[in-house]
Design a protein that fits this description.
Length: 221
């Protein structure tokens, strides 16, 4: 585990130096969510009704802002080639990169979500399910994004292509995540959508590192 932890620590250190990977998604969410009361001109009931979908869509869009950075910077400085040439399994390097990306961009979204919920008048009783659903779902964003990032890392402006590639894959996550918050806000059990989200996370952790590793090798050939 030493190479794994070393790679995670390296990415966290570099990410904390740039800081934009942390602040940019949060500022984006805050700016967009303040537009909804102004645009709709509606009361608290309407905002609370659309809050689950809005929060999850914002989390998805905010995650897309940084997905191309998972491998892009390492490709530019030649680090990706060292991941391939070293004896350390490439899928484990992918796992480390995904974990570091989630800690820098996904975890802040989870912690920031209750504030977005307050702005959209989401019932306080739903905050627990909201944070839990995002805690399960945002890592899937990072895993799915790692495939797109691996395929587009050699492109100068691959962000749009990455978005086109991963958006269809992220649609089930968006549906199940928003459904969990909706059920909670209605006073129903959110266990079923949360279990489905958990299943997607397990599948992502099991399969995607190998798919992303294959995409890296293809891109370097």
């Amino acid at each position: 585990m030493k190479p794994f932890l070393a790679l995670v620590k390296r990415d966290l250190t570099l990410g904390l130096r740039r800081k934009s990977q942390i602040y940019q998604p949060l500022i984006f969410q805050l700016l967009v969510v303040t537009m909804f009361p102004l645009a709709l001109g509606s009361g608290a009931k309407t905002l609370a009704l659309i809050a689950p979908a809005v929060i999850w869509i914002l989390a998805l869009l905010a995650s897309l802002l940084t997905l191309d950075q998972i491998f892009k910077n390492d490709y530019d400085d030649g680090s990706v080639e060292s991941y391939v040439l070293t004896s350390y399994p490439l899928p484990m390097s992918v796992m480390a990169k995904v974990l570091a990306h989630w800690l820098l961009s996904g975890l802040p979204l989870v912690l920031f979500s209750p504030i977005i919920g307050v702005l959209l008048h989401l019932p306080a009783s739903s905050n627990g399910v909201l944070m839990l659903s995002l805690l399960i779902g945002t890592p899937i964003f990072s895993f799915m994004g790692s495939i797109g990032s691996a395929l587009t890392m050699s492109l100068k402006h691959g962000g749009l292509l990455l978005t086109i590639l991963v958006m269809p894959l992220l649609t089930p996550v968006l549906i199940f995540g928003a459904s969990a918050v909706v059920e909670s806000s209605l006073g129903n059990s959110a266990s079923q959508p949360l279990l489905l989200l958990s299943g997607l996370l397990i599948l992502s952790m099991t399969l995607i590192p190998f798919a992303a590793a294959a995409a890296i090798k293809i891109n370097l050939e």
